[in-house]
Amino acid sequence: MKKMKSSVVALAMSLGVVGAVQATDLTIATVNNGHMVEMQKHSSSFEAANPDINLKWVTLEESALRQRVTTDIATKGGQFDVMTIGMYEAPIWGAKGWLEELTFSDAYDIDDVLPAMRGGLSVGDKLYAAPFYGESSMIMYRKDLVAAAGMTIEDNPSWGHIRDVAAAINSPEDGVYGICLRGKPGWGDNMAFLTTMANSFGARWFDEDWKPQLDQPAWAHAVTFYIDLLTKYGPPGSSSNSFNEILALYNEGKCGMWIDATIAASFVTDPKQSKVADQVAFAQSPVAVTNRGANWLWAWSLAVPAGTQKSAEAQKFIEWATSKEYIELVAKAKGWGSVPTGTRTSTYNNPKFQNAAVFADAELKAILSADPDNSTLEPTPYTGVQFAAIPEFQAIGVAVGQQISAALAGKLTVEKALEQAQKAADREMRKARYYK
């Protein structure tokens, strides 16, 4: 069929038939992460095979992307034909009827998609977004610095041990900081990391009656520890750092440890990007009083907003971009160590990937250990590890993230930040009538 379409286009052009075939423009909103940028580089392969489709890209920083796509889909603005969203949005928007159900050909092999990813992007048995890459979180550290300090890092170390290692390897005079962690405000920025940390300290966002719990001791302990850790052993300006900023620091050799998305492993171990690629080791995320919810579960995924006039073309693009064939295309161009990961069983079973990706086992272990249905020490009414899967969480997470980032920057005390965060969360939940 594709060859036939190409032949028709070629014939029309050779005969000079203007307008004989009119290409459809697909506008794709995506995040400025490395794998998404790489996808754009390969888009010419899709367009060559589908000359009746032109791809147009809107690439945004993470927080800006979330704001733009949320506004567009809620107002039915129609700016985008394909949206990059995650495990927070997909089930909520799918249940509201804001997304098209995705149906792919048998060749796509939907059963090859990791159950954790497929489940997190579905409502019932309906898939509303396809994972482009999936991730959990884990420790990435400089094994040379840790060994030189006479320290070790095992799986699931205590946060106290992480603090001790950070202190031992911290050397600002040499341009190396003991630990780098997200500080930029946002529900998917600093709060994505900090929620997993707070989970391990025994915290939760809401009790069983949906009352916010930010004024409870576990949150105070976690946030105080986090701010003390970054203030003493983190780089200057941590309150402005998120994934891309820390990735740049790490690849320059300026971070002794980094606890963040497993997807970063493919970048920090790439000698073309990282000056310390051969010195990176991995371990499962730290814990305090529990290992529940200590590492997150996420997938940057592609979805089709409901009501688009270009649903067939959009689904065709998504099937291509999240297929086995696309992964092989990247492997051929960049090597198996650089393919998008966290989505398919076949990737982890591939000996070429196993040989190229030193992080493969640690990444898969983290993904398989994350449990959105059992992520806190005390019971809760919500699902989600680094978020609570309710529509109101986005506004709450942003408000809380701003308070915590201000405390990290020294503008507020932890007590005041959490007091204001609690008030903001309570206001949102009362407005949404979870309680009076």
Task: Describe the model.
This protein is 43% helix and 12% strand. With 436 residues, the chain is α+β, with helices and mostly antiparallel strands. Strands 2-1-3-10-6 form a five-stranded mixed β-sheet. α18 (393-408) runs antiparallel to α19 (414-431). The chain is globular, with a radius of gyration of 22 Å.
Provide the CATH architecture of the largest domain.
3-Layer(aba) Sandwich
Q: What is the radius of gyration?
A: 22 Å
Kindly name the structural category: alpha+beta
Work out the helix count: 19
| Number of DSSP strand runs | 10
Q: What's the SSE pattern?
A: HEHHEHEHHEEEEHHHHHEHEEHHHHHHH
* Nearest-integer average pLDDT: 94
Shape: globular
Distance between the termini: 59 Å
Number of domains: 2
Q: Low-confidence runs (pLDDT<50, min 5 residues)?
A: 1-20
Largest sheet: 5 strands, mixed
Summarize the structure.
This protein has 436 residues and is of the alpha+beta class. It contains 19 helices and 10 strands.
What key phrases describe this protein's structure?
436 residues, alpha+beta, D-Maltodextrin-Binding Protein, domain 2, 3-stranded antiparallel sheet, 12% strand, disordered N terminus
Write the layout of secondary structure elements.
Elements: H1 2-14, E1 24-31, H2 34-41, H3 43-49, E2 53-60, H4 62-74, E3 82-85, H5 89-95, H6 115-120, E4 122-123, E5 126-127, E6 130-135, E7 137-142, H7 143-148, H8 159-169, H9 190-200, H10 217-233, H11 243-251, E8 257-261, H12 265-268, E9 280-283, E10 298-303, H13 311-321, H14 324-334, H15 345-349, H16 351-356, H17 360-369, H18 393-408, H19 414-431
Parallel strand pairs: 1-2, 1-3
Antiparallel strand pairs: 3-10, 4-5, 6-10, 7-8, 7-9
Helix pairs in contact: 18-19
